């Protein structure tokens, strides 16, 4: 059971004061009956909540996949740039991006309000694979690829865990890493006397970027995607 005002706040309808106004205005109904009392308790899993005649499905946790465009920051707030939260229309409170992509990196970013899942995916102990499509300025030598696969040292003293390289062409590879060091892919490629010219994340753990999503588009995860991510 949940208080009606708390539920609407969580869904992003505003502050307690805002939602009190909405409820008192008579646009909210529970099981077809108008409800004007903000402290009404209802069963958020089984009762039918409607606002302005629109069916509202309450979900405690929300999971969103976004194809992040360049120029957008992986944070919840930024004084200067658009953030990943500005790209989505879901107003649920407490959504945040799981991990970070650089401003000029595109691709898969997961947004959720489920702190436990985020923690599990980001925990260094869990070694969650992250795969990137990487375009580079110079081809990688055989030795460089071997170094990356054994564990390359970046910036003189930072040792990376072994990573996987799939060569697509002279100027493009897929790189799978299990850590999330600052600018890791760019620094790994720099350590190989080359430079990243384009970077896109294509997977995180079992979650693959949906190729149907254009840059800046998002969708909710399917149950299958969520289940395999939680295993
Ligand atoms: N590695 C980078 O260098 N940048 C990213 O955005 C992600 C991984």
Give an account of the 3D structure:
- The chain has 231 residues and is of the alpha+beta class.
- It has three domains: 2-56, Structural Genomics Hypothetical 15.5 Kd Protein In mrcA-pckA Intergenic Region, Chain A (Roll); 63-124 and 206-230, Pseudouridine synthase I, catalytic domain, N-terminal subdomain (Alpha-Beta Plaits, 2-Layer Sandwich); 130-204, Alpha-L RNA-binding motif (Alpha-Beta Plaits, 2-Layer Sandwich).
- Helix content is 21%, strand content 31%.
- It has helices at residues 4-10, 16-24, 115-122, 142-150, 184-190, 223-230, and strands at residues 2-3, 28-30, 33-34, 41-42, 49-51, 54-56, 63-68, 72-73, 82-83, 96-97, 106-112, 130-136, 153-154, 158-159, 164-169, 172-177, 196-204, 207-208, 218-220.
- The strands form five sheets. Strands 7, 10, 11, 12, 15, 16, 17, 18 and 19 form a nine-stranded mixed sheet that branches. A four-stranded antiparallel sheet has the order 3-2-5-6. A two-stranded antiparallel sheet has the order 1-4.
- The longest helix is centred in the first third of the chain and has 9 residues, at 16-24.
- The radius of gyration is 22 Å and the shape is elongated.
- The model has no long low-confidence stretch (mean pLDDT 96).
Largest sheet: 9 strands, mixed
The CATH architecture assignment of the largest domain turns out to be: 2-Layer Sandwich
Task: Find the CATH superfamily of the largest domain.
Answer: Pseudouridine synthase I, catalytic domain, N-terminal subdomain
DSSP helix count? 6
Structural class: alpha+beta
The overall pLDDT average reads: 96
User: What fraction of residues sit in β-strands?
Assistant: 25-35%
Overall spatial form: elongated
């Amino acid at each position: 059971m949940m208080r009606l005002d708390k539920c609407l706040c969580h869904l992003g309808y505003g502050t307690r004061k805002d939602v009190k106004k909405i409820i008192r205005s008579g646009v909210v109904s529970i099981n077809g009956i108008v409800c004007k009392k903000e402290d009404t308790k209802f069963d958020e899993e089984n009762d039918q909540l409607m606002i302005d005649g629109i069916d509202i499905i309450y979900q405690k946790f929300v999971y969103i996949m976004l194809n992040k465009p360049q120029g957008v920051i992986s944070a919840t707030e930024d004084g200067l740039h658009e953030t990943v939260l500005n790209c989505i229309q879901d107003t649920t409170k407490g959504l945040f991006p799981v991990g970070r992509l650089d401003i000029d990196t595109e691709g898969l970013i997961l947004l959720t309000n489920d702190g436990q899942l985020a923690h599990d995916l980001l925990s260094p102990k869990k070694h969650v694979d992250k795969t990137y499509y990487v375009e580079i300025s110079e081809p990688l030598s055989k030795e460089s690829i071997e170094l990356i696969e054994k564990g390359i040292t970046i910036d003189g003293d930072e040792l990376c865990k072994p990573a996987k390289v799939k060569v697509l062409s002279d100027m493009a590879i897929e790189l799978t890493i299990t850590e999330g060091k600052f600018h890791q892919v760019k620094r790994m490629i720099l350590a190989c006397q080359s430079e990243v010219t384009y970077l896109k994340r294509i997977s995180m753990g079992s979650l693959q970027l949906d190729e149907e999503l254009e840059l800046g588009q998002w969708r909710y995860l399917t149950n299958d995607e969520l289940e395999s991510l939680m295993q």
